[in-house]
Amino acid sequence: GASSWKLVTRGLAGPLVERTTLNVDGASFTVARFSSQVGFHLHVGTTDPPGAKVPADAGSAVAAGELSLGLVGAFNGGFKAKAGAGGTWIDGVTLTPMIKGMATAGISRSGQLTIGVWGSNLPAAGYIEYRQNLMPMVMGGAVTTAVTSEPWIYWGGVVTGEKEPRSALGVDGQGRVLYLATMTGVTPLQIAQALVAAGAVRGMELDINPAWPVLGLAGTPVRQRTRVLVSVLPGGWHSPAQYMTGSPRDFFVAVAPPRVGCRIWSPILKGPMTPEPMRVVGRGC
Q1: Is the peptide bond before 49 cis (omega within 30 degrees of 0)?
Q2: Which of the residues 31, 140, 237, 255 could staple to 69 if both were Cys, CB 3.0 to 4.6 A apart?
Q3: pLDDT at residue 262 tops 70
Q4: What is the pTM of this model?
Q5: pLDDT score, position 214
Q6: 180 CB contacts (<8 Å, ≥6 apart)?
Q7: Order of strands, edge to edge, in the sheet holding 113-117?
C-alpha cells in the first residue's frame, strides 16, 4: 500500500508536486504526483531519437523559457526509437511514425498531459506533442489484458530477465500526472499494479533496465541552469542534472505558472519546426 503523500513543491494555490512510496508484492516504488496546475513539455535526446531535428525549445536540454517559468521536475521518456514501441511527434515534426493502438502520452497547448490510445480515445486537436510506448498498461483504473496476456518480453528487452527496474506514467481521475519507478527488479504486472495502487485511471510503461529510470524534483521551482533537480529515485544510476546540459535520451519536463490565475500556453503551430515555447497568459501575468 501507499504511505502518506509528502509535499515536495508548494504553489500559491496549493501543492504542485507530492511524492510517496508504494509497496507492491514486495517491491518498493517511488511515486511523484504532479497537480493539474503543472505543465509538461517533451524533449529529445542527443543520441535518441537518432538524427532528430526539432525546434530549439524541444532540444536535449531544459529550455530557457521553461526555466523562466520554474522547473519543478523532470523524468525519463520511453524506449529507444529502434525498439519499434511507437512513435514520437513534437511541434509538428514526426520523429518516429505513430502506431494505431499504442498507448500515447499527449501534451496540449496548455501543457496538460493526458494518456490515451492512438486512433481511439486520444484527442487530436490542440495537442503539440505525442510520445508512444507499447500498449496501455492501465485503462479504466484496471490492469489491461495486454499486461496479463502478452509475454513478458513484449514489455521490453531486458538485461537479466523478466524482473527489471521499470518506470511508468499515469494520470488519475483528477487529471494529475503520476510518474513511478523502481530500481528493484519487477515484472510488467507488478508495475501495472503499482500504477493502479497510485490512483492511475490510465497508464503506460516508460523506459526500463537499470540505466534509464531517472526522476528529479525541486523543492522550489528551478529558474537557473546552475541549479539542479534533486534525484529522488533510490539506487538510480544517473543524475537528473543531465537534463540541464544535454540528455542522451528523450525526457519530460514539468513547469509551474509563477502566479495564481496564470496558465501555461503555447503558440499555434505554423508548420514543422515551429517552436512551441512555454509562456503564461492571464491578467497580471
Answers
A1: yes
A2: 255
A3: yes
A4: 0.96
A5: 98
A6: 22, 29, 30, 31, 32, 167, 168, 170, 191, 194, 195, 198
A7: 93-96, 88-90, 127-132, 103-108, 113-117
